[in-house]
Specification:
single chain, alpha/beta, Rossmann fold, seven-stranded parallel β-sheet, 11 helices, 15% strand, globular
Length: 329
């Protein structure tokens, strides 16, 4: 059995090699992400795994069908970069890793919330100009006095509910699918209640046509408590221009963003000066904004789990077995 692994980073190599040795599978590593230009490298392989961070054209799945490949194992939760219908039409099963380490993403979200609650960015901005004072504009709220609103209660939203609850916060959750196991940590409610009552709003939904721009001019206008916004999910969940306007007007008091709508243009790259998007530059200049380059997943455990789970699924499908992680049935 032979599997080609696209988008492999150096830190994944020891885990991949260990898995390959244990399972007696030949694994070829490709640094570049899967795309139409390098899909031909998969010829002669039985299966494919990809990091899934860049959009995949329908022509890629057609090539896989020609090569006799029947699956693509994405090593992350989100599959919004995959053309699921085109894959299905070509007999390609797309799998994802729904829970490689929900705590990793949840912890970064909470880290961003604490950073913003304590006005650290504002203090750093002042100190860069020699100002070491504090005043009523920078007084903080302790998190156990906050109401946290979670939009989405899957694995990561659930882990976030547990952490915020353990810190003493009141946690509200909006999700169309009820999970009774989260009852000890949160109270289910509707979106408008979260917009009206939350001091911290954290996004944990997939990017779908129904969730795109969940945070927009209209929803921002309903935010009664001028909350902090946390996005460790997908950039497209937020209308960036509406967010910038909300931050400037004070309707949103701060934002911690691990992902941006146009991030594929520059995240994961070393960019030349003065080539970054204007919206990023505008957000970066705001001391009440914290931006990280989509690294919420980036922990040792998450890297190990995402790789092993994806390759296990690939091996099972190649061998004629069934897995529960197929997302385009």
């Amino acid at each position: 059995m032979k599997i080609i692994c696209y988008g492999a980073i150096e830190m994944e190599e020891p885990y991949i090699q260990n898995w390959a040795n244990r399972n007696k599978v030949e694994v070829k590593l490709v640094r570049d992400e899967l795309c139409a230009n390098n899909a031909g490298l998969a010829k002669g392989f039985d299966g494919v795994s990809s990091e899934g961070t860049t959009p995949v054209e329908a022509s890629v799945y057609k090539k896989f069908k020609q090569y006799g490949i029947k699956q693509l194992a994405v090593r992350q939760v989100g599959v919004d970069n995959q053309d699921l219908d085109a894959a299905k039409e070509n007999g390609i099963m797309i799998t994802n890793v729904a829970a490689y380490s929900p705590r990793a993403i949840a912890e970064l979200g909470v880290t961003g919330a604490m950073y913003l609650l304590r006005k650290i960015g504002v203090y750093q901005n002042r100190m860069e100009h020699g100002d070491f004072t504090y005043d009523e504009k920078t007084i903080s709220t302790e998190i156990f006095n906050c109401t946290v609103g979670l939009i989405g209660a899957g694995h990561i939203g659930g882990a976030s509910a547990q952490i915020y609850s353990a810190l003493g916060a009141k946690v509200l959750t909006y999700d169309p699918f009820y999970d009774a196991s989260l009852e000890p940590y949160t109270t289910y409610t509707d979106l408008d209640t979260i917009l009206a009552e939350a001091d911290i709003i954290s996004l944990h939904t997939p990017l779908l046509p129904s969730t795109e721009n969940t945070i927009n001019k209209d929803t921002i206008s309903k935010m009664k408590k001028k909350p902090i916004l946390i996005n460790v999910a997908r950039g497209g969940l937020v209308d960036t221009q509406a967010l910038i306007a909300g931050l400037k007007s004070g309707q949103i008091s701060g934002a911690a963003l691990d992902t941006l709508a146009d991030e594929t243009d520059f995240y994961g790259k070393k960019n030349l000066p003065n080539t970054l998007p204007q919206d990023y530059e505008e957000l970066k200049a705001m001391p009440q904004v914290l931006i990280t380059p989509h690294i919420a997943f980036f922990t040792k455990l998450a890297i190990k789990n995402s790789m092993e789970i994806a390759l296990n699924d690939a091996k099972t499908i190649i061998s004629g077995g069934k897995v529960r992680s197929v997302v385009n049935l």
